[in-house]
Amino acid sequence: MQGQVIQFPGLDALLWGIVATLQYYSLPAMALSIAAIGIALVMSGDDIDRKSRLKHWIFNILFGGLFVFGATTLANILKGFLSSH
Questions:
Q1: Among 6, 14, 33, 67, whose CB has the most other CB atoms within 10 angstroms?
Q2: Is residue 30 one of the residues assigned to a domain?
Q3: Is residue 13 part of a domain?
Q4: Rounded to whole angstroms, how far apart are CA atoms 52 and 37?
Q5: In Å, what is the CA distance from 8 to each residue of 14, 15, 20, 22?
Q6: pLDDT by residue for the chain (85 residues), tens digit each?
Q7: Is residue 2 part of a domain?
Q8: Alpha carbon of 62 to those of 13, 17, 41, 84: distances in Å?
Q9: Which own/partner pairs from 37-40 qualify as long-range (CB within 8 Å, at least 24 positions apart)?
Q10: Does residue 9 belong to any structural domain of this protein?
Q11: How many Å apart are CA 24 and CA 83, to the nearest integer?
């Protein structure tokens, strides 16, 4: 049995496909994670250490989302800058 060869028109198309796939699957995962952490944060009561850890996790998820979704904007800026020179 032979496998299919992955074909793409160019490196740009491959990279944009990877970024789009990451964005597609990371958004629901981030939303569910933040919702679950938010519920845990509300239920943590007076436990300051737990609240601090949960807030740190929310910050990490948001920072990761900024990285994943900002990659497209950064790539467009770099592509525009490099193609103009």
A1: 33
A2: yes
A3: no
A4: 12
A5: 6, 10, 15, 18
A6: 677 877 778 777 887 888 888 899 999 999 999 999 999 999 999 999 999 999 999 999 999 999 989 988 887 888 788 777 6
A7: no
A8: 27, 22, 16, 33
A9: 37/61
A10: no
A11: 28
How far apart (Å, rounded) are the C-alpha atoms in residues 47 and 41?
A: 10
Tell me if 61 sits within 8 A of 34, measured CB to CB.
yes
Q: How many domains does the chain have?
A: 1
Task: Give the closest residue to 50 by CA, choosing from 40, 58, 60.
Answer: 40
**pTM score, two decimals?**
0.72
Q: Which residue range is the domain that position 39 belongs to?
A: 21-84
CA distance 22 to 37: 22
Number of H helices, E strands in the chain: 2, 0
CA distance 5 to 9: 13
For residue 67, which amino acid is it? F
